[in-house]
Write a structure and sequence with these properties.
This protein has 308 residues and is an alpha+beta fold. The chain is built from 14 helices and 8 strands. The protein folds into 4 domains: 37 residues; 60 residues, no CATH class; 94 residues, 3-Layer(aba) Sandwich (Trna Endonuclease, Chain: A, domain 1), CATH 3.40.1350; 49 residues. 48% of the residues lie in helices and 10% in strands.
């Protein structure tokens, strides 16, 4: 099989969302299957955005079709999958309590393990992959989304200069079968200019282990940092309430106080910052803030005590 050149790879990556496999194959003198297999290996998946016209039609059809055939009928009418229709209906807030069977069908679909389910509006549950509006990118998991937010937080602290999501793919020369390419999750440039590639892995499967071994063999000067379950949970435990947009499976942030939160609370409390403002910054209730400050023995300035 003819090896893909850098120019061809760049062309496919730039156009796979807007051109068909057949069109790309014709432009490059390749077969359609070769282009499709390349995109599959690299994880370049087509994402078909919803147009305003489709949204308007979805809203119209939601009220038109009977409850027991809502998803099937709308999916057929729009040329979309059941999962895609369910997710979009949930995103647009179309599910209604007066149509329980339609609502149940939507929620059952989006709660199933599916990369199509992606956002919540109070009814659904945010699952793995999908577009994150606050990040402006598509990610493959909730962990990746949260880690991207963590990198943004580090950037605000001046510790990270910049980061990118899946910007580069490494090829393993002479490997004919199995894992031939590897795309790290994040390229991170630290404030001092050091470049690292971070891989978010809650579970290390055999394919991932092989890819990391081959990276060490073929690219020994490229530093790969694995964000495993322990590392992720440590970040979650310390910073989840300080990082805007942090996601949890049930939509609720953990109630424990981290050392970082308590340090911020102490600084703000003893500086006389109003309780309401402290609560807003920490994402907690005013009562939770006041009780924690009292338990830790933090003292307000004299002027604040008199004003209170």
């Amino acid at each position: 099989m003819r090896k893909w050149t850098e120019e061809e790879l760049r062309f496919v990556q730039e156009h796979y969302q807007t051109m068909t496999y057949a069109e790309i194959a014709q432009r490059l003198g390749r077969t359609e299957n070769a282009v499709r297999n390349l995109c599959h290996e690299r994880g370049w998946k087509k994402v078909r955005p919803w147009t305003p016209e489709e949204d308007a039609l979805l809203k119209e059809l939601y009220g038109k079709f009977q409850e027991h055939r809502f998803l099937d009928a709308v999916a057929k009418e729009l040329g979309r999958s059941r999962a895609a229709v369910a997710c979009r209906a949930n995103e647009l807030g179309l599910t209604r309590m007066d149509r329980p069977r339609a609502m149940d069908a939507v929620l059952k679909t989006i709660k199933a393990p599916s990369r199509y389910a992606r956002t919540r509006n109070g009814l659904g549950v945010l699952t793995a992959g999908g577009f994150r509006e606050d990040l402006g990118i598509y990610v493959r998991s909730r962990w990746e989304a949260n880690y991207a937010r963590y990198l943004n937080w580090l950037k605000e602290q001046g510790k990270v200069k910049e980061w990118q999501y899946e910007p580069e793919t490494f090829e393993f020369p002479h490997i004919k079968r199995g894992t031939r390419f590897y795309t790290p999750d994040f390229r991170v440039v630290w404030a001092d200019g050091t470049v690292e590639y971070h891989e978010v892995k809650g579970y290390m499967d055999q394919k991932s282990r092989t890819a990391l071994k081959r990276m060490a063999r073929y690219y020994p000067n490229v530093k790969i940092v694995v964000i495993d379950r322990n590392t992720y949970q440590d970040i979650r435990r310390k910073l989840c309430r300080l990082i805007p947009g942090w996601e949890e499976p049930n939509g609720k942030l953990p109630s424990f106080w981290s050392e970082a939160e308590e340090a911020i609370l102490k600084e703000l409390w003893e500086s006389g910052v109003p309780v309401a403002e402290i609560a807003r910054r920490l994402g907690r209730s005013e009562n939770a803030v006041a009780v924690r400050a009292q338990r830790k023995g933090f003292r307000r300035p004299a002027a604040s005590r008199k004003a209170g």
